[in-house]
Design a protein that fits this description.
The protein is of the alpha+beta class. It folds into 3 domains: 62 residues, no CATH class; 40 residues, no CATH class; 96 residues. The chain has 3 helices and 10 strands. The strands form 3 sheets. Strands 7-8-9-10 form a 4-stranded antiparallel β-sheet, covered by helices on one side. The longest helix is centred in the middle third of the chain and has 29 residues.
Length: 202
């Protein structure tokens, strides 16, 4: 037997279904925000999928204070131990600061940054090779995509396509510095010059 809903009940249900977007629109508590929307509001969405969907999309992702890693489902972890981090969320896709890691010396930091920049330059080469065969860029790495291997300690690049190119970022398990690059006309701050990697501390 079906249940018939009165107009007033439907309105109430729609209100609660829209609640996540309403929370985003209010954007009062920046301490729990995970993203800044294009209309200036803040989102506290747990998952990246659908965040700011009713506010023009995501303008900038915000890493919660104390987070040590981002999980593959878009959630964040503040785990103090590397083992088991994001175990129930598909595993770690990006480390911000690996738990238990000691201070990084200036020499080590320079080496990590150089490694990340090198990986991004190699990605440019790989994407151009893919474009030469397919007349398009791709976000896929491996089978059916670009041929690319990350340097030790570096994450695989996070790639996003743009109207006339792509942008990407790389992080390293031992530093809070992250490096970006872009091809086309869409800058990927701190990268401002096409094809030239730039890095910044989170």
């Amino acid at each position: 037997m079906g249940v018939r809903l009165t107009p007033s009940v439907r309105v109430i249900l729609l209100f609660f279904l829209a609640a996540p977007s309403l929370v985003q629109a209010q954007g009062q508590d920046s301490s729990v925000a995970t993203a800044k929307c294009r209309d200036g509001t803040l989102s506290a969405a747990v998952s990246r999928q659908g965040a700011c969907s009713r506010h023009g999309g995501v303008a900038q992702w915000i890493i919660p204070a104390g987070a040590t890693a981002r999980c593959s489902d878009g959630s964040y972890s503040s785990s103090k131990q590397a083992q088991g981090t994001c175990a129930n969320h598909g595993g770690v896709v990006e480390w911000f600061t690996r738990p238990g890691a000691g201070p990084v010396s200036p020499e080590e930091e320079q080496a990590y940054v150089s490694s990340m920049k090198s990986d991004l330059r190699n990605l440019v080469t790989a994407e151009e090779a893919y474009f030469a065969d397919s007349v398009k860029y791709t976000t896929r790495i491996g089978f059916g995509g670009v041929t690319f291997t990350a340097s030790a300690g570096n994450t695989l690049p996070r790639i996003a396509l743009t109207a006339d190119g792509w942008l990407a970022s790389v992080s390293n398990a031992h530093t809070r510095t992250r490096c970006m690059i872009f091809i086309g006309s869409t800058p990927n701050p701190p990268a401002q010059n096409e094809g030239k990697p730039a890095c910044a501390s989170l």
